[in-house]
Each structure stands twice: as C-alpha cells, then as structure tokens.
Amino acid sequence: MSRSRHWTRDGIDVALLVISLGALTLIGTPRAEGQASIRRTPVVDIVEKVAPAVVNISAEAIVRAPDPFFGDFFAQRRRVESLGSGFVVEPNGVVVTNAHVIEGSSRILVTTADGQELEAEVLGLDRDTDIAILKVNAQGLASVDLGKSSELLVGETVVALGNPLGLSNTVTTGVLSARGRTVPAESGESLFTDFLQTDASINPGNSGGPLVNLEGDVIGINTAIIAGAEGIGFAIPADRARRVVDDLIRFGSLQPIWTGLRLRELDAELAQRLEVQQDRGALIEAVYPESPGDRAGFKRWDVLTRIGDKTVTAREDLMTALYSVAEKSRLAVEIWRNGQASTLDIWAEQPPRELGLRLLEERLGIEAVERQGVLRVSQVVSGSPAARKGLRRGDSLLRAGGRSLATVDDLAREVLRAMDRGGVLLVVQRGRRAYYLSFRL
Hints:
By secondary structure, this protein is an alpha+beta fold. The protein has 4 domains: 1-30, no CATH class; 44-254, Beta Barrel (Thrombin, subunit H); 261-347, Roll (Pdz3 Domain); 355-440, Pdz3 Domain (Roll), CATH 2.30.42. Helix content is 20%, strand content 41%. It has 10 helices and 26 strands. A hairpin with a 3-residue loop joins strand 4 (71-90) and strand 5. Helix 8 (355-364) packs across helix 10 (408-419).
C-alpha cells in the first residue's frame, strides 16, 4: 500500500510526477518468470508450427530468345529462373506448390527452412487447378497437413507464408476477404473457380506457399494476384486441393470425373430466348446416354441452381464441386424444371476408359495413332465436324485444351476433361503451319 503527499513547487503538482514515474517503473519492471509475454500472439504460434515446413522453390528453364536483328535464324538459348514457394506435406519429401511455378522447367531446386538445398522431380502437375507435386530425396522433413476450408468465416484473420519476391521465410497477415471467387488465368486459356480472396500479401515468389488460419490449419494454397491491384490475393481452398494432391501423388495426374452433362451458363437474355423461367444458373444443353447425369435423371433444358449448400452461377461450379469430393461420393443438385424445383443426386464417377476415344470418333470424327513419337490423324470420318473443318489424314495433333499431346491416351483424356466444358480446342499442324480448331462435344 502506498501513500501520496501533495505539494507544489513552481506551480507543478509533484504528486502527479511521482505517480507517473511509478507507472513508468511498473512498465519497465521485468515480468515474473513463466508469465506469458503479450508479444506471443496466435500468429507467432502459427509461424513456429508451420514455417519449418515451408520451402523456397527455384525453377530453372532454357528458352530460345530470337535475335533482335535476325529473328529466329540466330536465336540464342538463355537460362531463366523463376522463384516460388511450397510446403512439405509428407516427411519423406513430398512438396506441394503451384503448377505455374515449375511448368516448363528443366531443373528444380527446393530449399528447406533449415537451409538444405535439394534437387526435386515432378510427381504430377495439373494446370486446371494450378497444383503441382514435387519429390525430393530426404527423410524426416518438417511437414504440415492440408486442413479444411468449408467452415471459413469471411473477415477472419489469415496468415500467408512463403518467399515473396525471393525474400525467404516471409510472413504476412490479413483477413479472408471473400470465398468462391472466379478468376481468369493470366493466359486467358482457363478459368479458376472457387478461390479464396485475401488481403494478406501474395506476391510473385509467394505462390505455392500455405495460407493458414489462427488455429494453424493450412486452409489454402497461395496462387495468384491481380496485376496492379493492391491487397487482392487468391488461394486455392484446401478442400478443393486435397483430392487433386492425392491424385497427383498416387497417379501423377488428376483422375477425370465426368457427369455426362453439357452445360452452358444461363443469363437473363438466354433464359428469355429459351423461355426458361430461371435466369441464373447452369443450363443443361445435352445429356450423354448412360452417363452419371442420365442415370440421375437430369434432362435437357434443366437448370442447375444449387449444389449442396452452394448457389450455381456458372457451369464450372459443378466441376468444382465434383473435384472437391472423393470418387463415388454423392452430390445433391437442385434443379428447376417446368416451373418447379426438385433435387437429384449425382455420383462422382470416373468415365469408362474407352469413352474418350469413342467421343473423339463420334463427336469429332477423328481417329488418331502415335507414329515415331508424334500423334497423327489416321482417319477422318466423311461429313464429320473434323472433315468440315478440313482435317486430313496425316495431320499432326500437337495440343488439346492447352496441353501437349504425345499419345492417343493423352488425347482421349483431354477430350474427357473437356466434356463438361462443352468443347475442346485442338492445335493441328500441317507442314510448317499450326492451326487452332475448336470443336463442340
């Protein structure tokens, strides 16, 4: 217990000065041993838990740069390097990162938080989800698991870890700004759906690192920023990434899931033209016979309005939902038909192995064969879409859906992946010229 006395000197209240000095003394007094420091926030605990599993990724590629005066004739080969992030998901050296970080690279180096520099090989890569799996030759690495993203709260604090702009072991914080964002890829070839949006700094070099909540769970994979936009970053939700990661580790590629439904985004103009009473959702243009959609009871001109507890605003919403669940899982889909709402159950299934080749022949009118490492058209059905667009026997098939083709199985797989999008884009070469040809499925 303290006593205070008041007196004045030169008009100053001395008691007030004594009290103030006492407060300063209390502030500066060392805390009792074992007392928690106010500096140990949840973010500090998160960093200590997750950061040891975060890695720096350096991807090296050789590109041909045309001579500024003589063009391709004197093109020079030069080495380029991209930097990114990743995180270890299995102690034996399995690393998750973004596909765009390592795509096209000839050499990949992974640097762990404790300074180990390890050469990596690619176990699998999927451009549609922008996820890649690497493997390094190491044991006992610090690792983290993918958490859940289904119960995230808009406005909750999130933490991004990684190596933005090559600055290793960087931590940034922010809030979850939104869920379910749709973002076009930088190339414009594809559309990413169901992204998490955050204002935690995600910059070049930060891609592939984990986005973490205050419970220390990895809720997403940092993946993209909008060029020129401050405070807008995106991450792949953990729930969507989980099956992709599992498939890439087990099979080296994302196993296709199909519905047999050809969908089209519905807007007010299309609804009025087709006299559909709903003006928002995904419209079924066709149902493939004996497909999961056919067995579930879907019909042409049905409008998909909800999948589970999520509203359908685009055709990609169905595929997002399918790729977020395990094979043979059930999804409840709400539809609008003839002025009434009802719910149908559809199951996540892999398509029959031969279906891709059958679609290629039935819908496009093409048969293909691999010859000397090149995929070539072996037959064009008379009167087919391929014939009408001028394809000939012997033409080379270079790419489908933005992916390079080497085998007939590659082509069949890309046709299946494009089935629910309603069409596929082929790159066909004849002589020295390459052509882009689009086909409906």
